[in-house]
Structure formats: structure tokens, C-alpha cells
Design goal:
The chain has 436 residues and is α+β, with helices and mostly antiparallel strands. The protein folds into two domains: 286 residues, 3-Layer(bba) Sandwich (FAD/NAD(P)-binding domain); 121 residues, no CATH class. It contains 15 helices and 22 strands. The chain has a five-stranded parallel sheet with strand order 7-3-2-11-22, with helices on one face. A hairpin with a 2-residue loop joins β9 and β10. The protein is elongated, with a radius of gyration of 26 Å. The N terminus and C terminus are likely disordered.
């Protein structure tokens, strides 16, 4: 890693500046707060523009959530037509997010990863992964490239807000203040707090600028009856999950605490909005076709045998019918097509793969700069957007980080132009600055 400029300064000053003592480190470029994918991409854009970059993160090592995501295969992006890809983020994309994805979509994400020496493959569903499968080789190459470009990384530096125009950090050496020409905040959402994204940063913004955090790509809590224990760990396949006007045919796993899996994650938005959840046990058959196959009741076969022999309903799917459908009606076909799913809502926020809510786009320009704090940009999951798993989350973090970094570099360049000289002197930089 590049040298710890903070350590050099401590040697000169006899330690970190104390709270309120007026001692402020002046960084001659941009500070990026957060060393996840969005923050690192912002740093990359700033380095490409020739700007000195200081990256600060509260954790002992960078990109911890990124590394955790890569343990089960790092899904970089989704290789599909642009219209389909953009639709995953909702019907009405905020202009800034729309711009970020237009400038850095799936093709750009794949080219970027290849530029870091990663061979890629595309699965049958269009999901794109590194051939190495893990996130660690890509992260090592990325950090090496940033270091070679001159970026400085300071770990265990927790951002605690602003002190006037300066950023304030809690560090192992005490309180530290840094004033830079521009700032990019990439502070993450509010899940997996042990990996660094705890959402506490939202309290440092004025009321109304942030939307409450809510689970996304999360499991549902269910109180099961004892007979369900025999199917714990089994995946529900060949079924469709329906919430509002969204239908998902992905797999869902039945577990001791409830339901989990990609089949639910695509329904996060309508479920948050209160839509009831239904399970279609036979998505490829109509209600009439089911009635015809079941035939009239009677004869020697039990209902369980009729369902198994005539419809192939057994195992976990049959267990769910009995769990949520009893007492079973005489006309079973409509119930098989729309079985009400009884649940207690999402699992706790901290367990969610990602979160909705965060810094509202109304608080930002189309270039992701804060309206109320010129020269400060924001990116990544701390912004109020939402998407399912499948490569959409990481691509948007990279895209918004890139856009914020480009914006920060442009802000510094504008501050250095002759027409902005008065502002430069006012902020105390010989070569120009922006209030962070």
C-alpha cells in the first residue's frame, strides 16, 4: 500500500489533532469515505483524472461485504439487453441512476473486470461471474492498481460527520479532521453491519434528505407447525411466487426460521408495499386443467394419493399446501393456483442482502453531488434505490461510484480554473478547493 500520510503527519504534529483544537489536515485532492465497490470505483475515476485520492474506511480491511458476496460466486452483472437490465431497477429510474447505468452498464462492467485480469463466464440465466468464482483475486488486482496510481488507503477511520468544511474521523490515534477539494461518500446501506454497513451515517444528514431503510433481497419470517420440520432445507421448485403484479419462478428454500431465496428477492418491492404473497404450485397449468386432472372426489384413493398420482404433488410442495391450505376446500384447483402464504414479514434488516432507503435522489444533482454541500458526492448502496440480486446490485454500485468520482474530479478542475480563483482563496487552497 502507499505510505500512510496520516502517520507522517502524526510524527510532525505529535499526534492526531484533538477535538476542536482547530488542527486540520489539508488533502490536495479528493477524499473517498468508504472502501466498498462504489468507493473504490470513485477512487479509480479520480485517479484516472490525475487527482490525489485518500480512501478512508471504518473497517480493518477494505470491501468486506464485497468479499462475503464473492464466497458463493461473485455475480458481477447480468448479460442481457439494456432495456431488460434497466427495468430491474423499477419503472421510474431517478435521472442520476439512469445516467450512471447508461454510462456504465453490463458491457462496461465486464470490460472493467477483464481489465483487472479476470476471465469471465456467463451462466445459463445471463449472470456473469469471474472464472475464479471468488471476489478476492479481483479485489487484490483492483487495490494494486489503485495503489500504483497513488491512492492512499487508511483503515479504521470512521467518518463521524463534518466540522465546518472538514471531514471528521474517529481513528485509532484519536479524532482527525481532513479538508479536501472534493469528497465522495460511499457509506453503504444498513445490513450486514458487522461487515461495515450499519446505516448510522444517515443521522448526520438533515431530516428529509434520507428515506428510512427497509429490507430488500431478504427472507421472510414464518412460524411453522411441527410437521414442517421434515422438509426444512428443501427448495420449492416448479412453482411461482406472486406479489402484486410481480411473478417470480426462482427457487425458495424452506428453513426453520422461514423462507429464503432468489424466488423471494424479486418480490421485495411489492412485499414492502404490503402486497399479499401467493404461491402457484402449478404455474404451467390452468385452473381448468387442474380440475380435469384431479377428477371427481371419491373412490379408494386418499386426497394425498390423488394429488401425488394425478398431479405429482409431493414433498415440500405438498407440505406447503397442507400448512397454508387447511381446511382444504372441495374445489382444490383455485387454491393450488393461489395458495396464501402466511408470514410475519421480512427477516431483521441486518440479515438482508441489501437495503432500500437511504439518501434521496432529490437531495442530489444528476451528477450525484449534494445540493446542500457543494463538492460532496454520494454513491453506492447509501443512495435510495433498489434492485434484485443477479448482478444488478454490484453493477449499480460500480456505476454510481464511477459517476460520483467523475463528478468530483470535474468539480476540482472547475475550482482550479481562473474564474474560480476567488472561491479557491476563500477555501484556503492555493490550487482551488471545494467545501467538503
Amino acid at each position: 500500500m502507499a505510505g500512510d500520510l496520516g502517520a507522517e503527519r502524526r510524527a510532525d504534529k505529535g499526534g492526531a489533532p484533538g477535538e476542536g483544537d482547530g488542527s486540520v489536515e489539508r488533502w490536495p485532492g479528493a477524499v473517498v469515505v468508504g472502501a466498498g465497490p462504489a468507493g473504490l470505483m470513485a477512487a479509480e475515476a479520480l485517479c484516472a483524472a490525475g487527482r490525489p485520492v485518500l480512501i478512508c474506511d471504518a473497517m480493518p480491511s477494505p470491501a468486506r461485504k464485497f468479499l462475503m458476496a464473492g464466497r458463493s460466486g461473485l455475480n458481477l452483472t447480468k448479460n442481457e439487453p439494456e432495456e431488460m437490465f434497466r427495468a430491474a431497477y423499477g419503472a421510474a429510474l431517478p435521472p442520476a441512476l439512469d445516467r450512471a447505468l447508461a454510462e456504465f452498464g453490463p458491457e462496461a462492467a465486464m470490460a472493467w473486470a477483464r481489465g483487472l485480469g479476470q476471465d469471465l463466464f456467463t451462466g445459463s440465466t445471463g449472470r456473469v461471474f469471474p472464472l475464479a468464482w471468488k471476489a478476492s483475486p479481483l479485489l487484490r488486482a483492483w487495490l494494486a492498481r489503485l495503489t500504483a496510481a497513488g491512492a492512499v488507503l487508511r483503515m479504521r477511520w470512521r467518518w463521524t460527520g463534518w466540522a465546518g468544511a472538514a471531514l471528521r474521523f474517529a481513528t485509532p490515534q484519536g479524532t482527525w479532521q481532513v479538508q479536501a477539494q472534493a469528497t465522495v461518500l460511499a457509506l453503504g446501506g444498513a445490513s450486514w453491519s458487522r461487515l461495515g454497513s450499519d446505516g448510522t451515517w444517515s443521522a448526520r444528514f438533515p431530516p428529509g434528505l434520507t428515506a428510512p431503510f427497509a429490507p430488500s433481497n431478504a427472507g421472510l419470517s414464518v412460524s411453522w407447525s411441527p410437521p414442517m420440520e421434515r422438509v426444512f432445507g428443501q427448495a420449492v421448485k416448479a412453482a411461482a411466487w406472486i406479489a402484486g403484479d410481480v411473478v417470480s419462478r426462482g427457487e425458495v428454500v424452506v428453513g426453520a426460521r422461514g423462507l429464503e431465496g432468489g424466488g423471494l428477492y424479486a418480490l421485495s418491492r411489492p412485499l414492502r408495499e404490503g402486497a399479499p404473497l401467493r404461491l402457484d404450485l402449478f404455474p404451467d397449468l390452468t385452473t381448468e386443467a387442474l380440475r380435469a386432472r384431479l377428477g371427481p372426489a371419491g373412490g379408494r384413493d386418499s386426497l394425498a394419493n390423488r394429488l401425488r398420482k394425478r398431479l405429482g404433488l409431493k414433498g415440500v410442495r405438498a407440505a406447503l399446501l397442507h400448512e397454508w391450505g387447511r381446511p382444504l376446500p372441495g374445489d382444490l384447483a383455485p387454491l393450488l393456483k393461489a395458495l396464501p402464504v402466511r408470514h410475519h414479514g421480512f427477516r431483521p434488516l441486518d440479515e438482508a442482502i441489501s437495503t432500500a432507503g437511504g439518501l434521496r435522489f432529490a437531495a442530489l444533482t444528476d451528477g450525484l453531488m449534494l445540493h446542500n454541500r457543494a463538492g460532496t458526492f454520494a454513491a453506492g448502496e447509501m443512495l435510495d434505490w433498489d434492485a434484485p440480486t443477479g448482478g444488478y446490485l454490484l453493477t449499480a454500485c460500480l456505476a454510481t461510484g464511477r459517476l460520483a468520482g467523475i463528478g468530483a474530479a470535474a468539480w476540482i478542475a472547475a475550482a482550479e480554473s481562473p474564474r474560480d480563483g476567488a472561491r479557491d482563496e476563500e477555501n484556503g487552497f492555493s490550487s482551488g478547493s471545494a467545501s467538503a
